[in-house]
Design a protein that fits this description.
The protein is α+β, with helices and mostly antiparallel strands. The protein has one domain. Helices cover about 30% and strands about 30% of the residues. It is built from two helices and five strands. The protein has a five-stranded mixed β-sheet with strand order 3-2-1-5-4. The longest helix has 22 residues. It is globular. The termini are far apart.
Length: about 120
């Protein structure tokens, strides 16, 4: 069964909603936590790009892009992606959402996204 954007959207709907909910709870801790950034699950040679729909305060799938290099299982990274006009995004593999504690790494990567934007 091949991965499709629809299957990936279904797979990540709950975890990405949880990111949004957690961010609302922690945003006041530090200015770097006030902004949500794109999240790109890396699977099967493809980045599946999810961006924040600000009106709904929810992530929605917006695009896919081929990975320009292999992305190993367990990656948590921030880097700009050409498909996002070189804006920074949080690149992860699916197991980041296996435990609540692992969500911390997503917010850690958001801090790097903010650093990238602020130069």
């Amino acid at each position: 069964m091949s991965l499709t954007p629809e299957r990936i959207a279904t797979k990540f709907a709950g975890p990405l909603q949880r990111v949004s909910q957690l961010q609302q709870q922690i945003a006041g801790l530090h200015p770097f936590l006030e902004t949500l950034f794109p999240i790109e699950p890396a699977e099967d040679g493809t980045f599946f790009i999810f961006e924040l729909n600000a009106a709904a305060h929810a992530y929605t799938p917006t695009a896919t892009a081929p990975m320009p290099m292999p992305v190993p299982l367990g990656v948590r990274a921030t880097f700009p992606l050409e498909a996002l006009d070189n804006r920074p995004a949080c690149v992860i593999t699916a197991e980041v959402f296996d435990t609540l504690a692992a969500y911390v790494t997503v917010f850690h990567e958001f801090i790097h996204c903010q650093q990238w934007e602020w130069g």
